[in-house]
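Before the break, one more example. Copy the sequence into your notebook; we will annotate it together after we see the structure.
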Amino acid sequence: MDILFSSVFLMVTCWLLNKFFAFMFDVPTNIESVYITALILALIISPIQGLGDKNFFAIAVWASVWAIASKFIFAINKKHIFNPAAFGVVVTDLFLGLSASWWIGTGIMMPFVAALGLLVVKKIRRFDLVISFLVTAILLIFGNSIYHHSDLIQTAKTVIFDLPIFFLAFIMLTEPATTPPTRSLRVIYGVIVGILNAPFIVVAGIFSTPELALVVGNIFSYLVSPKYKMTLTFKRREQVARDTYDFVFEKDRKFNFKPGQYLEWTLAHGEKDNLGADNRGIRRYFTIASSPTETEIRIGVKFYPEPSSFKNALLNMKTGDKIVASQLSGDFVMPKDKKQKLVFIAGGIGVTPFRSMVKYLIDNGETRDVSIMYSNRELADIAYTKLFDEAYEKLDIKTFYTLTEKEKVPVNWRGNIGYFDSNFIKREIPDYKNCLFYLSGPQSLVLAFEDTLGKMGINRSRIKTDYFPGFA
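Here is what the structure looks like once it is written out:
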């Protein structure tokens, strides 16, 4: 009951504060983000010990104020710098001398943390970040134990059952808004936080804590990440295939990105902001379908029966309506070596990053050895054919099309029928072992081709997949 009361109190407090700051700054409210912050605070702040527990109310209110304020006040160009929950408890410790207990890091909670944490990391595919942090942190702890001739078995028990190291790694470190945009930078970020997380680290007389390590790491992440959050203006909608549209937006500032990267899109909808949103919320990740050479930003979206409230709101946007785009990320970009042979394999709307890349190559007159394999269920589902035809005429980039619904293939169809397989690749791309493969589309397609290419002797390092948080 103490835990339940504490959680409800923190959620209500954070919700009210978020409403206040959103009203003052006139920005959309991300209610799911508020609940996540509140629940994290509930798991690292000791539960209330009776209604007379003044310390709980002090730390709960103070940490909530600074956690929510960090999203609005401690933000540059509308991009917040710090993990809200971590920042809230750091400021509370500095000013009130009341610190978070991280009671979630106890033996009895370990199975729940591990199970939920692994699901989260699998969902958002941030194993690179988590592993770099855990390896660094655990090596430092064991190295210190060896140096001081401590019992290594006891050290292992402490790491597993008495420290919040796994909760910090799985839940807090992986927050998308404060995570670097590329794999290499995420690994460095994990190492930095892993070093600072060591409990014996002392700087200027201040002992490191998990929240302080994360906040300092957030500064590094901010310095190496894109520094903006854009408000885009809707211009028009273009149908590019059956039930598939390009949504075209006007930028409010200069925006640099690489073909193949993605953004997080926030669209407030429903009565009184997000109150009309379904349980998937008001945020989505979409690959940028436009090229950096174009003056407009576009995304390609496939609509299925009974779409989410977000997609309904997107479909009903009027000229002049606003949408917020932020968190530019992604390693799904072309290599610097222009002589590297490339094979783009796409399924359905997964072709959008290749639309960006091909348009970029055409506009710059950049010649690369590129082959495109594009799979769809039916003829009506194929998108961007005019652009790919232009790429063939100007740059000799050939696109192979296939339709998988054999019984619905038109009589005059000249492309392939059925699924692409290893025999097709060997026949059409005989030097395939020298190629770098890019896979984008439904997860079933990506996994199938990873398996196919692996059996063909293609090293995993030569296979790049398009994946971002929230895809699954």
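The radius of gyration is 25 Å. The first helix runs from residue 2 to 25. Try to locate both features in your own notes.
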